[in-house]
Amino acid sequence: MARLAYATVGSNDLEAAKAFYDVLLGVAGIPPLFEHPSGGRVYGSDGVPGFAVLGPFDKAPATVGNGSMFAFQCDSRAEVDAFHAKALELGGTDEGAPGVRGPDWYFSYVRDLDGNKLCAYCLG
Predict the structure, then answer these.
(1) Could you report the average pLDDT of every consecutive run of 10 residues in the chain (124 residues)?
(2) Element (H, E) at 10
(3) The dihedral sign for the CA sequence 13, 15, 18, 19
(4) Count of alpha carbons within 13 Å of 11, Cβ hemisphere only?
(5) How many domains does the chain have?
(6) Does 113 reside within a domain?
(7) Is residue 13 part of a domain?
(8) In-domain check, residue 1
(9) Long-range Cβ pairs for the range 56-60 (8 Å, 24+)
């Protein structure tokens, strides 16, 4: 059975993107794992990649996927709040403040420096 293994976003300013994600994903407990040959960086837990910011393979400018979003599951509402606040502090933009979105569903939405949409959420 197949399962989603990792997600990537592209950036046109990898140094700024890495600085953004180093701090933001650090809030979520997801450290950098290694540098990517494109000049980007791969992040994950326990040595397993889960997310990366990269330079596009085709060398064309990175663009935002309309309808694309990457979600990070948190352990608590406080972690969701911290993720959202840190993203805004780092220059991201609000796409939906933390709040209840369904029965025991707590979600927040932001866009990174390149406009990629991110979600932080917890259930329960």
Answers:
(1) 86 97 96 96 95 94 90 95 98 97 94 96 92
(2) strand 7-10
(3) negative
(4) 23
(5) 1
(6) yes
(7) yes
(8) no
(9) 56/10
